[in-house]
Amino acid sequence: MKAVSLQRMGDLENDLVEAFPNVKFIFTQGVSDINDHDKKDLDILFGYDGKLDEDFLKSCSNLKWLAWYATGVNKLPLNYIDSNNILLTNGRGVHAKQMSEFIMAFILDDYKKMKTSFINQTNKKYDSKLTGKRVSGQTLLFLGTGSIAQKTATIANAMDMIVQGVNTTGHDVEGVSKTYTIDNLFQALEEADIVVNTLPETKETIHLLQREHFEKMKSAALFINVGRGTIVDENVIANVMKENIIRQSYLDVFENEPLTPDNQLYNINNITITAHITGNGTENKQEVTQIFKRNLSYFLNNNTLIENEVDPDTGY
């Protein structure tokens, strides 16, 4: 059994070699660092490299399992993976920990007017009458009720927020007081003070949010996107914010990444931008490797996986 990494793993390399003496590990710096011999007879690819594409996978004719260290798989050649019966796992759950902290940081940054305080500091202005707003009692709506929403809900509930969610079927979710089906999205948006998109990119979610959805939100609403930028067309969100249809947006993901310096979003005052960093964490690699190790133990004995398996057909 040969397992080839898509990134260097530091001290984790020795941990893997010692834990699985019957597996031949090859540690590389990505797809361009993997030689033809290893491509032909590798059984497992693990790690992350944004350059991985269908042509590369076609050269890995023996590949049985791709253990993707990111949560999002929308950039992978899912049709090829599906048609060739390649098992696929991701890092779901690990990234939710820091993403939940970012979501709450965005909310508090906005509600406590921290941006205004920083501007005042820059201008050497001392305004002791600046007054923020409490988050308790505010309705926080998640588009998508997966691990990110559930982790954030535990924090939001502790702060006495009202947590609601939208998912495909309207099924109950722990920590979420009320759920809506996607068919009732308009109703859900009308009730929310804060709307957070955590949905993955699928055929159904691309441009799911149209101008009319923002028009259904409260004019004082806060919109946060940490899911995928393709949830809303860039021109739609730009015009919505320019026209103050809602009050404020925090955007971490974008339809076209990376943003170029001349991108219109940089110049809209009620948009706060972070550069797709909410999933970044120094602990990620170690924690995703623990998932990989648990799956590998099971895979070696049963040729199947026990957690974080992704259906290439649906993308989650």
Tell me what you see in this structure.
- It comes from Staphylococcus ureilyticus (Staphylococcus cohnii subsp. urealyticus).
- InterPro entries: D-isomer_2_OHA_DH_cat_dom, D-isomer_DH_NAD-bd, NAD(P)-bd_dom_sf.
- The protein has helices spanning 12-19, 36-41, 54-58, 78-83, 94-111, 114-122, 147-158, 185-191, 211-216, 234-242, 284-302, and strands at 2-5, 24-26, 44-47, 65-68, 87-89, 139-143, 162-167, 178-181, 194-197, 222-225, 248-251, 271-273.
- It has 316 residues and is an alpha/beta fold.
- The strands form two sheets. It has a seven-stranded parallel beta sheet, sandwiched between helices. Strands 2-1-3-4-5 form a five-stranded parallel beta sheet, covered by helices on one side.
- It is elongated, with a radius of gyration of 22 Å.
Major β-sheet profile: 7 strands, parallel
Radius of gyration: 22 Å
Taken from the alpha-carbon principal axes, the silhouette is: elongated
Strand order of the largest sheet: 8-7-6-9-10-11-12
> Element order, helices and strands?
EHEHEHEHEHHEHEEHEHEHEEH
Query: How many DSSP E strands?
Result: 12
Organism: Staphylococcus ureilyticus (Staphylococcus cohnii subsp. urealyticus)
Keywords: NAD, Oxidoreductase
Domain D-isomer specific 2-hydroxyacid dehydrogenase catalytic: 40-301
Domain D-isomer specific 2-hydroxyacid dehydrogenase NAD-binding: 105-277
